[in-house]
Amino acid sequence: MRLEVALPVIIPLFFGALTLTLWRWRMAQRVATATGTGLMLLSALWLLAATWQDGILVMHMGDWQAPFGIVMVSDLLSAIMVVLAGISGFATAVYSLTSMSKRHEAFGYYPLLHLLLAGVNGAFLTGDIFNLYVWFEVMLVASFALLILGGERAQMEGAIKYVTLNLVSSAMLLSAIGLLYGLTGTLNMADIAEKLTYAEDPGIITVIAMLFLVSFGIKAGAFPFFFWLPASYHTPQVAVSALFAALLTKVGVYALFRVFTLIFTQDVAYTHGILLWVAGATMLTGVLGAAAQYEFRRILSFHIISQIGYMIMGLALFTPLALVGGVFYIMHHIIVKANLFLVSGLVYRLKGTYELKELGGMYRSHPMLALLFLVPALSLAGMPPLSGFFAKFILIRAGVEAEAWWIVGVALVVGLLTLYSMMKIWAEVFWKAQPEEHANRSAHGSAGSGVLYLTIGGMAALTVFIGLGAEPIYRMADAAAHQLLNPSLYIDAVLGERQ
Amino acid sequence: METLMAFTVGGLFSAAIYMMLRRSIVKLVIGLVLLSNAANLLLFTQAGLLRGAPPLVPKGATQPTGVVADPLAQALILTAIVIGFGVLAFAVVLIHRAYEVVKADDMDQMKDTDT
Amino acid sequence: MNSQFALQSLILRTAAHFLLPLLLIFSVFLLLRGHNEPGGGFIAGLVAASAVALYMFAVDVRSAKRVLRFEPRDLMGWGLLVGVISGVPAVFVGQPFFTSQWLELKLPLLGELKVGTPLLFDVGVYLVVIGAVLLILLSLAEAEGKTDHHHGGG
Fold first, then answer.
1. Domain range holding C98?
2. What is the pLDDT of residues C33-56, one digit of tens each?
3. Chains with at least 3 CB pairs less than 8 angstroms from chain B
4. Does B82 contact chain C (CB < 8 Å)?
C-alpha cells in the first residue's frame, strides 16, 4: 500500500471541500488555501522521492485489484508532473492572496483552485483510461468557472469558445475510449497496452489512435486545434491565466505522452510521423501568431502554443534522447511560462494595462522587475545557461541524431523568433520611454507587491537552478524517458501481482 | 441492431455538427447536447448489444447464471451522462450570462477576443 | 418577486405541500437502501433535489430556499468533505484509500446492523447532488426572476 500515490489528489479535494464550507470566512479560506497548496507541494515532493527510489508505485483504490478496479500509478513522468503542478499551484495561490480582489474571491476562487489542482493531479496519476476522462472533466468544469470569474464581456466571449472546443474534445475522447473498450474489453491502461500487442487488426487501432490524437491535441492546443487558447487565456484574472498556462495544456501533452508511449506503439512510423508534422506546424504557427500581437498576455498565449510544439516534437521523434528532451522541456516550460504570466500581472498592477503600446520606461522605474522578466524571457528563448537552453539543446541534438533535418530547422527558426518576440516585450515595456498620454496611469500602485516579487523571484530562481543544475534534472528526465520507452515496466508494475 | 445503432450514432453526430456550425449560441448548446449523447450511445453500442439479465449474483452462488449484460459499460455511460449534465448545465448558465452581457444570440457578435 | 415565474395552480401548490415531505422521506429510504439493492446517494440526491425543485415551481423561489434552510453550496462543501473523509479510515488499518470498512452493531430489538464507510460516502454524494442541482436551478430561477422584474419595471 503506497499512501503517497493518492495524497496529491486527496489533499486538494479535501481543501477544496473545506474552503467551500468556509465560504463566508474570507480569512479562513485564504489560510486554508495557502496550507492546502503547500501540503500538496510537499506530498508531491514525497511522491517524487519515493518514485525515484522504489520505481513505479501503484495504488489500488478501494483495494479492488487491477485490471478490474481503478489504479493510481506513479511513474517518474507522473511524479515529475505532479511536482510541477504542486510548484505552480503553490506559487499562483500565494500570488493570488495579494492579487485577487475581494469581489473575485467571493465568487469562489479558492474552492475552484483546489478543484482544478485535484483534477490536474488526478489526470497525471490515474492508470485507468476512463478515469483519465473523468479527471479531465473535473479539471474542465473548474477551469470553466475560473475563466468567467468576474464576468466581463471578453471573459464570456472567450469562455464560449473555450467551452465549446473543449466539449467537442471530450466527446471525441469518450468516443475513442468507447471504441477502445469495445476492442479490448478493459479500461486499465496497462491491460489495454498488453491486449493490443496481440491485436489482429492494426487498422482500427490506428483509427482510435488518431481519435485520441485529435482529442488530446485540442486540449494541448496543438496545430490545427489551438484557436480556443489565444481567444481565452488573456481574459481571466492573471493568477488564473498563469495557472492555466502552466498546467492545462500540459495535461493534454502528458496524456499524449502517456498513450503514445504506452498504448499506441504498433505503427510508430505512421502515428509518430503525423505527430512530428503536428509538432512542426504547432511551433511555427504559434510563434508567428505571437509576432503579430501587441498585448502582453496574448503574446505569451501564442508562445504556449509554439512551446507545445517542442514537447510534441520530443514525443514524435520517439528516440530515448528525444523523450528526455520532451520531459525536460515540460519541466522548463511550466516554471517559465507561469512566471512570465505572473510578471505580466505585476506589470498590469503597476501600470494598469497589458497593451505594449501604452507601456514603457519600466526599466528605469522598476529595475528589479525588469531583471525578473529578463530571466524567464531569455530562458524561454533558449539562452544559455538558463533552463530553456538545455531543453532546446537536447531536443535539437535528438533531431540531428534522428536525421530529421526539417524539424531541426523549424525548431531553430522558432527559437530565434521567440527571442525576437521576447525582445519586443522587453523593448516596449521596459526600455522605451512611456508614451506621454499614458504616463499617469496607475491601477493599484505598488502597495503590497512584495509577496508578488517574492513569488516571481522564486520561480526565476528555479529557472536558473534548472539551468545551472541541469545534470541531476537531466538524469531524472533520462530515467523518466527510460520508463516511457519500456512499457513493460509500467505494465508489470500495475498487473504484476496477478501473474 | 448494430447497424441501426451505427446509423443513429452517425445521424446524431452529423446533427450535432450541423447545429454547432449555426450562428445562434442556443443552437450551439443544442449541438453540444446532441454531441455528448452521440458519444454516450457510441460507448453503449461498442460494449455489445445483447439481451441479458442484470448482472446480479444469486444468493449462495459465486457467479451470475445465464447471459448477463455488461455492467461496466452502463456504469461508464451513467458517469458520462452525469458529467455531461453538469457541464451542459454550466454551459446554459454561461450562455445566459453571455446573453446578458453581449445582448445578442449571435456568434458573429463575439469576435472581440479573436484578433 | 417571482409572481410571473411560479405556476399559478392551486392544485399543484396544495399537492406540493404534501409531496415535499413524502419525496424527502423517499429519498432517505433510497439512500439507506443503496449498496446492496438499487438505490444509493446519487439517485436519492436527485429525488430530494427534485422535491425542492417541485416546491420551487409550485410556490416560489424564496420559500423553496426557506424549505432548504442551507445554502446549496454549503451542502456541496459538506458533502464533498464527508465523501473525501469516508475514504480515510481505511488508511489507519493499512489498506488503500476508499477500502470499505464495516462496523457490525448488535442493537436490541432491531437485531444486527451493518454500517460502514460506503454509507458515509453515499451521504456525501447525496449532499453534493442536492447542492449542485439546486445551486444551478435556484441561480437560474433567480436570474430569471430578476430579468422578469426588470422587464416588468421597464
1. 10-153
2. 877 777 788 889 999 999 999 888
3. A, C
4. yes
Nearest chain A residue to C73 by CA: give it.
A20
- Mind listing the pLDDT tens digit for each residue in C79-121? 999 998 888 888 888 777 887 777 777 777 767 777 788 888 8
Q: Is C68 inside a domain boundary?
A: yes
For the four alpha carbons of A157, A159, A163 and A166, in that order, the dihedral sign comes to positive
A32 touches A19 (CB < 8 A): yes
Q: Is residue C29 domain-resident? A: yes
Q: Which residue has the cell 528605469?
A: A364
In a domain, B63, yes or no: no
How many domains does one find in chain C?
Answer: 1
Q: B115 to each of A164, A227, A495, C64, how far by Cα in Å? A: 19, 11, 50, 45
- By the CB < 8 Å criterion, does C70 face chain A? no
Taking the CA atoms of chain A, what radius of gyration do you get in angstroms? 22
All three cell numbers of A50: 519515493
Distance CA B101, CA C143 (A): 13
Residue B90 lies in a domain: yes
Q: Who among B82, B93, B100 is closest to C140 (CB)? A: B93
Query: d(Cα A106, Cα A44) in Å, to the nearest integer?
Result: 29
The C-alpha of B10 sits at a distance from chain C's nearest C-alpha, in angstroms, of: 31
Q: Closest Cα of chain A to C97: distance in Å?
A: 6
Round to whole Å and give the CA distance between A408 and A396.
Answer: 6
Q: What is the pLDDT along chain A (499 residues), one digit of tens a residue?
A: 578 888 999 999 999 999 988 888 888 888 999 999 999 999 999 999 999 988 888 888 877 877 788 889 999 999 999 999 999 999 999 988 888 878 788 788 899 999 999 999 999 999 999 999 999 999 998 998 898 887 788 888 888 889 889 999 999 999 999 999 988 888 899 889 888 887 777 788 899 999 999 999 999 988 888 888 888 888 888 889 999 999 999 999 999 999 999 988 888 888 899 999 999 999 999 999 888 888 888 999 999 999 999 999 999 999 999 999 999 999 999 999 999 999 998 888 888 888 888 888 888 888 888 888 999 999 988 888 888 899 999 999 999 998 889 999 999 999 999 999 999 888 888 888 877 776 666 555 556 678 888 888 998 898 888 888 888 889 999 999 999 998 888 888 888 754 4
What is the reported pLDDT for A204? 87
The CB density around residue B54, as the number of other CB atoms within 10 Å, is 10
CATH number at residue B32: 1.10.287
Q: Are strands A57-60 and C111-116 parallel, antiparallel or unpaired?
A: unpaired
Residue C93 inside a domain? The answer is yes
Window C:17-76, CB contacts with B under 8 Å: 42
Q: How many domains does chain B have?
A: 1
DSSP three-state, residue A265: coil
Chain C residue nearest residue A6, CA to CA: C97
Say yes or no for a CB contact (<8 Å) between C42 and B82: yes
User: What is the rounded distance in angstroms from the CA atom of residue A39 to the CA atom of residue A36?
Assistant: 5
In a domain? residue B13: yes
Inspect the interface and report whether the beta carbons of C139 and B93 lie closer than 8 Å. Answer: yes
| B80 within domain boundaries | yes
d(CA A52, CA A49): 5
Q: How far is CA A15 from the centre of its chain?
A: 22
Q: Are the beta carbons of C136 and B93 separated by less than 8 Å?
A: yes
- C5 part of a folded domain: no
Give CA torsion, residues C55, C61, C62, C68, to 10 deg. Answer: 50
Q: Cβ distance B2 to B45 under 8 Å?
A: yes
Q: What is the DSSP letter of C63?
A: H
> Minimal Cα distance from B29: which residue of A?
A164
Q: Given an 8 Å threshold on Cβ–Cβ distance, is C84 in contact with A13?
A: yes
Segments forming the whole domain that contains residue B8: 2-50+71-109
Search chain C and give the residue with CA nearest B95.
C140
User: Which residues in chain B are closer than 8 Å to A140, comparing Cβ atoms?
Assistant: 87
